[in-house]
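Handoff note, outgoing to incoming analyst
You'll be picking up this chain. Sequence as last confirmed:
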Amino acid sequence: MAQTAEPQVSPIAEHAVSGVDIELEHVSKNYPGQRAAAVEDVSMHIPAGEIVIFVGPSGCGKTTTMKMINRLIEPSAGTITIGGQDNLSLNGDELRRTIGYAIQQAGLFPHMTVAQNIAVVPGLLGWSKQRIAARVEEMLDLVGLDPGEFHDRFPRRLSGGQQQRVGVARALAADPPVLLMDEPFGAVDPITRGNLQDELMRLQAELRKTIVFVTHDFDEAVKLGDRIAVLGPKSTILQYDTPDAILANPANDTVAGFVGAGASLKQLTLMRVRDVQLTEEAITARCDETCEEIRQQLDERGRTYALVLDERDRPQRWVHIRDLPAATTLAEAGKPITDWVTTQSTLRDALEAILAEGGSAVVTKEKGRYAGTIDIHTVMDTISDLRGSEPRRRTGDPA
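Most recent structure output, in case you need it:
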């Protein structure tokens, strides 16, 4: 097993860690009637307050390994300790109530409202009604859903992205130190998936949980992970290290296959929008301002576009000065924003959003509020810098 390098100190280090260490020692899983083990002799240390990604091909045992942490699958051999306590020493149901669990397609109870779904584990733990009600409101706000709008909705009335946000809120409702996530964003469209990834990073910056996240998508692993465990058959650990270390020095050809080509583009996944200088802020207007007011601002400053924000400073639409004469309200003028990034987004996300939007992309910060814009020149300059720092290939090396 490759030795793990210590990750660089990140901006989230200033927040108190609420997660705990997880230790897997010689853990195996054998299913009755199968000669080969599903998981064989896995040992690893998962540090408190970090996101550790299990990535590997389908059938390699990554989900089985994760499920043995909360004993949805019982290990056949070995020891798993959580915060220094052997997980086999606890009642399985009690253990699972202290570990958050989020899965693909959210897994919400369809007959329960959003609030009732979020309240499930606190209710099982015997919290008072007042405490549960306050926690539901807090969690909805934390994942960016307006409590007044979503509290009493049923899952069928939510989009896929909204369902996943509720699923994360439910997993975090009892404030568990550990959160297990099994391909939670795999069933949504690429734009929503990117936004949910950004939301998870924002939440982690505040909460510092210990998160074990299963995916088959190496780009997602690089974006989210403090450390990545690249797994082979039977959850054999091919490499366990920081994303930048794996990108720079894959342990073997199999890991190199996961990394793939285009090192400089992969490096964009390690860099965040918050790490670059945003371009000059656009002229902004509220939805309730008049078209004439914003036209005067554009004329005075010699600009052609304005960004329309809602009452909570969230970007809604781009409006060109030529759209204004025919418009009655700013809420209907111009075109809606279809793609955007957050300060937690990667520069690769930003590049994709810029290409979709045409020239520049809107950047948001906490609670979706407007932060600025990022343009194609900023990203291309960064790519040029990264390519210039890559070691030159020797003649005859494969491209």
